[in-house]
Task: inverse folding
């Protein structure tokens, strides 16, 4: 699995110092949480908090290596037993267990399973786990409060409370009927009582109503535990299994074959993530050659050929590693017994493509070839008399094809004149895809033609991507300039224009004038409903009725984190938004009625307010224009740890409102791991406030995350020069020195 660059964790400190959009950040990247609709029972919250570490996501892989099923499970022993439903694991599929902290484990054995009961107990290599306590069998009563946890519809580690509706016998199986909605992904999750003990495993959804489900009682699980029928994974797996007569795998990882290719994923358990796949065929007499085509998912990894293997830790390896070709002699299990005999950087190796690597082994000499070119030759005869095969290191994912051994393997590269002829045909096709002569010419050497065509496509795709990125940079730069020019007008700036420009930043085709016209139309309708000389309180009430009663505007509760809620045009289209966008619309309509409303950024929630006879009135646009008392506003401030009281918070200027919207979009992007989008928002924030040290830090760390360390240096140098408070410059200096 992939992890964030460790230095990106510094972004947590930076972002926690920032005020965010409409909910105070509860995560390192400042992503807002939606407002609570109803209070959560404390007991349920406590049980959820103490149980989550014992819950797992169970996924099975299909015939194509992709995830085909996801369910739930939970720990039942400290040494790695996981309970789930049998239908969750399928049959003969690789199974992965993932904990809440992201740690993943391959299932090493099916400890016990029963299709009739629909139960399975899985084993993983793990110690020190926290098992959930199993309740006494048949110790649950009708009407009892219960809590279900699982991963419904991919919403991982969810919790819901309900009651036991009844105890049923369905098709000769005892089941617990529960008034809880069960969805795909819940299966295998625990059904808990209010003390946190497991009474059953969530199993199936009612076909009659959504708010009804069933669970397998814990007594069935205990019977299965008493009489395990263990199946090791090498017996369980049939899909993609390597032929044991031809291949023997060592040191873990997951080796599979399909359509003539061998794939390997996950680190091996040898030192440095080493894992081997040894060919069992008899080698010809020396000298001999061994060759394979290999493609790595990440060029920082390493995977390739082994030869003269003793079936254990001793062997040679010839493989790409971090873009170089390396020849290594391995004489033991650790790095102290490894010797790098040679390492070369060669243009013959093509990163990101299939590369043909070949080794010729003589009594005292080893010669390495890449795509037909000799790149390495040296004297070494320490290891002889072993087998050949494949190897991978670290977290590399790799594919192999055309593995061969022989006394004299055919040349790896076609003659240059053949390649030149095929490339000429490809250029003809690029100008005229229907050129029959070019197609016919390429078909004469189809495999090589396909490779050359793939390279041409890759080059064109790279150029297209670079042009698209350039077009996006031009667009974003133009929007930033227009937005800053408008905001530089101060309080004379048009807040609606600014909000629509922010939406256009992400949606270049947005027609800003069309939404100005729509707001003018809305204002015209509204003005006919309220007298020009009406008091401001009446005008505010009329706006609330117009938006929320007459036109169906509402706060987004089930889809709160959708970026559309921050795009004013889409809020108008869908009549759904978050506090800040609904407040902007409220303020604009009030302006058309000569009512002076201001935005007010409370911690964790954005509202509007007005002054009348020296008294401030606060309106919550998210809650359908509800007036808030000072006490209610102070409660919001307290709930998000803002400190102070309502009177301590002045109205927000238009620049601050736009910045708050951008912070929210940035937080959503980071939560979604869309770091390129997050970088665009950070560039916009720095344009709005060039002296924002936290955003300079954010930009540096996002560049590092995106693999552009050179672009991070200017912002780090900016921070070193200004020495802002609250940022650990010594840690940043370490990062700078590593770039």
Result:
């Amino acid at each position: 699995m992939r992890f964030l660059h460790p230095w990106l964790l510094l972004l947590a400190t930076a972002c926690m110092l920032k005020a965010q959009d409409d909910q105070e950040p509860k995560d390192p990247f400042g992503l807002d949480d939606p407002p609570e609709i109803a209070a959560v029972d404390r007991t349920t919250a406590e049980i959820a908090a103490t149980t989550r570490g014992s819950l797992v996501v169970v996924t099975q892989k299909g015939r194509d290596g992709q995830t085909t099923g996801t369910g739930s499970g939970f720990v039942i022993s400290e040494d790695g037993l996981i309970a789930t439903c049998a239908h969750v694991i399928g049959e003969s599929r690789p199974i992965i267990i993932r904990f809440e902290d992201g740690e993943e484990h391959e299932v090493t054995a099916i400890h016990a399973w029963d299709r009739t009961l629909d139960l399975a107990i899985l084993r993983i290599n793990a110690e020190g786990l926290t098992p959930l306590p199993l309740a006494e069998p048949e110790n649950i009563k009708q009407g009892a409060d219960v809590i279900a946890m699982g991963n419904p519809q991919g919403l991982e580690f969810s919790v819901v409370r309900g009651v036991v509706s009844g105890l049923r016998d369905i098709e000769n199986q005892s089941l617990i009927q529960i008034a809880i909605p069960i969805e795909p992904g819940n299966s295998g999750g625990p059904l808990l009582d209010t003390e946190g003990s497991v009474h059953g495993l969530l199993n199936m959804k009612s076909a009659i109503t959504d708010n009804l489900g069933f669970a397998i009682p814990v007594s069935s699980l205990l019977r299965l535990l008493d009489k395990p029928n263990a199946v090791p994974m090498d017996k369980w797996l049939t899909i993609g299994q390597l032929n044991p007569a031809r291949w023997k795998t060592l040191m873990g990882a997951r080796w599979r074959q399909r359509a003539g290719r061998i794939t390997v994923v996950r680190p091996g358990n040898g030192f440095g993530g080493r894992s081997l796949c040894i060919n069992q065929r008899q080698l010809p007499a020396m000298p001999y050659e061994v060759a394979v085509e290999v493609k790595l998912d990440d060029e920082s990894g390493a995977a390739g050929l082994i030869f003269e293997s003793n079936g254990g830790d001793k062997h040679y390896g010839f493989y790409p590693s971090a873009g170089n070709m390396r020849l290594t002699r391995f004489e033991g299990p650790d790095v102290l017994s490894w010797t790098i005999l040679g390492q070369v950087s060669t243009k013959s190796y093509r990163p990101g493509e299939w590369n043909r690597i070949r080794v010729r082994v003589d009594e005292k000499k080893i010669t390495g070839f890449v795509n037909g070119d000799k790149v390495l030759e040296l004297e070494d005869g320490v290891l002889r008399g072993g087998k050949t095969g494949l190897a991978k290191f670290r977290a590399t994912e790799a594919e192999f094809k055309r593995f061969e051994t022989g006394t004299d393997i055919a040349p790896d590269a076609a003659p240059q004149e053949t390649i030149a002829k095929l490339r000429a045909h490809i250029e003809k096709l690029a100008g005229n895809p229907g050129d029959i002569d070019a197609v016919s010419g390429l078909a004469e050497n189809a495999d090589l033609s396909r490779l050359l065509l793939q390279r041409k496509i890759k080059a064109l795709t790279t150029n297209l991507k670079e042009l698209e990125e350039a077009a996006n940079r031009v667009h974003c730069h133009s929007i930033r300039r227009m937005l800053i020019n408008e905001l530089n007008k101060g309080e004379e700036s048009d807040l609606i224009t600014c909000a629509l420009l922010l939406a256009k930043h992400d949606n270049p085709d947005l027609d800003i004038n069309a939404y100005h016209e729509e707001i003018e139309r809305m204002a015209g309708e509204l003005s006919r409903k309220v007298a020009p000389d009406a008091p401001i309180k009446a005008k505010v009430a009329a706006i609330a009725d117009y938006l929320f009663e007459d036109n169906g505007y509402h706060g987004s509760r089930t889809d709160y984190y959708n970026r559309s809620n921050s795009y004013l045009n889409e809020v108008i289209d869908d009549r759904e938004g978050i506090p800040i966008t609904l407040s902007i619309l409220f303020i604009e309509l009030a302006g058309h009625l000569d009512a002076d409303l201001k935005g007010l950024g409370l911690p964790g929630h954005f509202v509007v307010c007005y002054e009348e006879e020296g008294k401030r009135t606060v309106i919550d646009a998210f809650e359908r224009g509800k007036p808030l008392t000072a006490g209610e506003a102070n409660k919001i401030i307290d709930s998000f740890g803002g400190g102070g009281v309502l009177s301590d918070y002045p109205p927000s200027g238009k620049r601050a409102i736009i910045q708050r919207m951008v912070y929210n979009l940035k937080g959503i992007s980071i939560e979604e791991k869309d770091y390129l989008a997050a970088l665009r928002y950070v560039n916009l924030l720095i344009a709005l406030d060039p002296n924002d040290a936290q955003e300079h830090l954010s930009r540096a760390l996002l560049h590092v995350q995106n693999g552009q360390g050179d672009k991070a240096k200017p912002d780090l140098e900016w921070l070193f020069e200004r020495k802002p408070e609250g940022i650990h410059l010594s840690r940043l200096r370490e990062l700078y020195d590593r770039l």
DSSP finds 19 helices and 33 strands in the chain. The longest strand covers residues 158-170.
